[in-house]
Amino acid sequence: MQLPRSAGILLHPTSLPSGKLDRDAYRFVDWLAAAGQSWWQVLPLGPPDEYQSPYRSPSAFAASPQLLAHPEARVTGKEVEDFVARNPYWTGGWTGFAGAEALVDQVRFEREWGALRTYAAKRGVRLIGDLPIYVSDAGADLAAWPELFAHGEVAGAPPDALSANGQRWGNPLYDWPVHRATGFHWWRERFRRTFELVDVCRIDHFRGFVSYWAIPARNSTARSGRWRPGPGAELFAAVERELGDLPLIAEDLGHITPPVHRLRDELGLPGMVVLLWAFRGGSRNPHALANHRPNSVAYTSTHDTDTAVGWFESLRPRERAATGLDPGEPSWSLIELAYGSRSSLAVVPAQDVLGLGSDARMNRPGVSEGNWSWRLERGALTAALARRLRGLAERHGRLRAELG
Asked: What is the 8-class DSSP label of residue 69?
């Protein structure tokens, strides 16, 4: 998939002033349109876990009722029946796990999300979703399809720049031979559901489809894991045969090897570059501006990193000077670099548009508590900021474009 040259903003619905799909969501779409943005990128839409993380949802298919603007809205039995008829694969398991009323919430979500998505599309704004590679160890998927998951090891990531001990996520790992024997049925249904909700999807931890870090379940950190082979292109081919071309963005960050890049390129997927990491690592650094590929997405920062201002303030004076960024507005200097990049899509978290510091970051990898709680202040995204972004988008050829 080749994305058009365009720009977008990363803001999860829980970070809206109300945290709901209410008037604030529609105001945000209006602001995106005024700012010349083509995309609204969100994080996973499933129900969050006990720490409010959307990456460890109890369902790979259900949407979060916490986002509902009208959680008491009337739903008819016919609406529920129609929803089940359109989603037969997963609704039974979700009902068994979460109760019959949980399906009513899914009908409400489909109603509210569909209305918001239609409103956005009419204003030239499309939605980028996020698909976590793994499911919860205490969720409906493991309960409904236990045969699809391995035992004795759990998921995570090896030590890297984000975490010295690695990340022990604790999610169950897939039994890939069983998935292969089913023709990757669960994955076909999961992608089908994903593209009912969004136009394009960032697939989290893409490298795990090439090889994944398996940690003995008894271990408390991710240090002593081992790499195991993933399904590779075979999975995506099976899904593509049924659903057609897959509008995906590969999250190819972290411990990346040549086979990961080969799979990304074989599938024709855009990868990711993060400008916070552009000022280190020498001439081969893929995040350095000179190395950006046209078929990629350039981020100033991500939900897993510090904000642009927080990162800049953490640097030593000599390191700050070496970046060449404006010390008065480091986040806007990065935005300018992202917009000028060869990357087809530039995405900026709302926190960087606002020039906010570390207290506004969304997540600290490897830390369970204190994340996913940042909220946008009502009125913070002003008309002046929209004009400034729109001017950059126009100057760098990123004004709203049609999806190719």
From this structure: S
Provide the number of structural domains found in the chain: 1
Please return the burial class of 109, using the count of CB atoms within 10 Å of its CB with bins 0-12, 13-18 and 19+.
buried
**Residue at 294 is within a domain:** yes
User: What CATH code is carried by the domain that includes residue 206?
Assistant: 3.20.20.80
pLDDT at 404: 43
Token couple for 353: 């548009």
Distances (CA, A) of 277 to 10, 154, 281, 306, 320: 18, 29, 8, 11, 13
Residue with tokens 């075979």: 234
Q: Find the catalytic residue in 24, 110, 251, 306.
A: 251
Catalytic-residue membership of 251 = yes
401 lies in some domain: no
pLDDT of residue 157: 87
Coil, helix or strand at residue 157? strand
Q: Which domain does 232 fall in, by range?
A: 6-395
The residues of the chain scoring below 50 in pLDDT are: 404
Q: What element of type H or E holds 174?
A: strand 167-174
234 catalytic? Reply is no
pTM (predicted TM-score): 0.96
The C-alpha atoms of residue 242 and residue 89 are separated, in whole angstroms, by 15
- 258 domain residue, yes or no: yes
49, 105, 153, 204: the catalytic one is 204
Among residues of the chain, what percentage have pLDDT more than 70?
98
| pLDDT score at 402 | 53
Gap between the Cα atoms of 316 and 312, Å rounded: 9
State the catalytic residue, choosing from 137, 304, 306, 336: 304
DSSP result, 367-396: --SS-S---PPTT-S-HHHHHHHHHHHHHT
